[in-house]
Design goal:
This protein has 178 residues and is of the alpha+beta class. It is built from 3 helices and 8 strands. The chain is elongated and about 100 Å long.
Length: 178
């Protein structure tokens, strides 16, 4: 705010320039027009600089997002490398005893489930739970003696994760009354 013409009335910044414009129009004051033209040029320069700064910041943010995404993908891939290594070892011993191969596959599956859990997507056991369309995808229904109607009688594909943080809903068979 500034005080114009000593009248004690505070005016917003730039109000004096508006008055100068009015005086210039009324009296042809060339100095006021020159001052306003200079001020317009300064403001245009500030606007262009602000736009350039905004564009540079947008580009910096985009680079940081791409870098963070790449680092996240690499961190997830590093967690899966031991699983792939163990699958390769199992394939290398494919001529071995079938029981040993089954034990190896079960160990690799447990390792894969552990990776999913560490990433925040644990295997969810929904058998017997009340059917919830936000957590389950019903693929069939059937009478299920001893099971409450509307509960999950069987899980076709399990879900991984909880609440809004799930990779996929469980595909389930829903119990219905006899």
């Amino acid at each position: 705010m500034n005080d114009q013409e000593g009248n004690g009335t505070a005016q917003p910044d730039g109000a004096g320039q508006v008055e100068a414009t009015e005086r210039a129009e009324a009296g042809g004051d060339g100095d006021a027009i020159t001052a306003l033209a200079t001020r317009i040029a300064e403001l245009e320069d500030q606007r262009l600089r602000a736009l350039a700064d905004l564009d540079n910041e947008r580009k910096r943010c985009a680079v940081q997002v791409r870098r963070a995404e790449a680092e996240t993908r690499a961190a997830v891939a590093r967690q899966w490398l031991p699983v792939v290594d163990n699958l390769d070892r199992a394939l290398a011993h494919s001529a071995a005893d079938p029981a040993a191969i089954i034990d190896g596959i079960e160990a690799v599956r447990a390792q894969a489930l552990d990776v999913l859990t560490r990433l925040g997507f644990p295997l969810r056991d929904d058998r017997g739970a009340r059917f919830d369309p936000a957590r389950h995808e019903a693929v069939a229904s059937r009478p299920a003696p001893g099971a409450e109607a509307g509960s999950v009688a069987d899980v076709i594909l399990p879900a991984y994760g909880e609440g809004d943080h799930q990779l996929r809903p469980a595909q389930v068979v829903v119990a219905r009354p006899d």
